[in-house]
Design a protein that fits this description.
ten-stranded mixed beta sheet; Rossmann fold; about 40% helix; alpha/beta; about 25% strand
């Protein structure tokens, strides 16, 4: 499934800690890790960085994976995308501390540049409030309980194609979640609103039935209101460990400027996200 994964590495604590998920990702088919560091023009790895890189590579080998490094220089977005293509990776895994330089590098313009342009799934893990020292605590499993926002678009189709394999590989629970958008439906309209709600619940239940017996427990959940707020609220309410989010690549550019649904969820989520690009 995710046989070869690209990990952008800037030697910050979050980007190093991101490698802790290698052990879990082994269950999802991981065989080879590609570490990519994009250096400033004309610079090279420092002695400390080289020592850290070697330690990281050894820790990956101890998990039973092959590991290679790619050190390049230039524009971070272009370089990460080029490496992802040349190495034919099945997933790009990035980290966010939600602050400082790492926020700008890996969850700011670079992250959205990658999300907007790549045709490959992107796993973004969140490490809010992390200091500068490397933590030794174990990372909580990511693929325990997935919140899967459903908008009945082509992105929904992509997520539904992915869920059975995730389930067979170890995903324990999935919640198919829809927000009846308050900007499109009026709860005061009585029968008309109830008709919309009934249709949503019927469609979700049909999707749930197709996933039954595939390896994980599947349930459905519906909220009414604004889409990004309710996705984030549901992730807390349902104690999700990850949000699996389909995102139209062409619309992400507009969303970055206007604050669209996918952009808001990616930026504000406090839990990991698996972003599935769809056209």
């Amino acid at each position: 499934m995710f046989e070869r994964i690209l990990f952008p590495l800037d030697f910050s604590e979050p980007s190093i800690r991101m490698l802790k998920c290698v052990k879990e990702l082994r269950g999802f088919g991981l065989k080879e890790v590609v570490l990519c560091h994009v250096a400033a023009a004309g610079s090279s790895l420092t002695t400390d960085q080289r020592e850290t890189l070697e330690r990281v590579k050894e820790s990956v080998r101890r998990e039973g994976c092959e590991v290679r490094e790619v050190v390049t220089e230039g524009d971070p977005v272009e370089q990460v995308l080029d490496v992802a293509e040349s190495e034919d990776v099945s997933l790009i895994a990035m980290a966010s501390s939600g602050k400082g330089r790492t926020q700008e590098l890996l969850i700011g313009s670079t992250s959205f540049g990658i999300l907007r342009s790549t045709s490959r799934p992107v796993l973004i893990n969140k490490f809010p409030g992390m200091g500068d020292e490397m933590g030794s605590e174990e990372q909580s499993p990511i693929f325990q309980k997935a919140l899967v926002p459903i908008d009945f678009s082509s992105c929904t189709d992509m997520c539904m194609m992915l869920l059975p394999e995730l389930s067979s590989r170890g995903l324990r629970e999935a919640v198919l979640f829809n927000v009846v958008d308050s900007g499109r439906s009026n709860i005061q309209e009585g029968k008309r609103f109830q008709k919309v709600l009934n249709k949503v619940m019927l469609d979700l239940d049909e999707m749930r039935s197709k996933l039954e017996g595939r390896g994980c427990r599947v349930s459905t959940h519906v909220h009414f209101g604004t889409v990004p707020y309710n996705i984030l609220e549901a992730s807390r309410e349902l104690d999700a460990s990850i949000i699996i989010l389909g995102a139209h690549r062409k619309s992400l550019l507009r969303e970055i400027a206007l604050g669209g649904n996918s952009e808001t969820v990616v930026r504000r989520s406090t839990i990991p996200l698996l972003v599935i690009p769809c056209d």
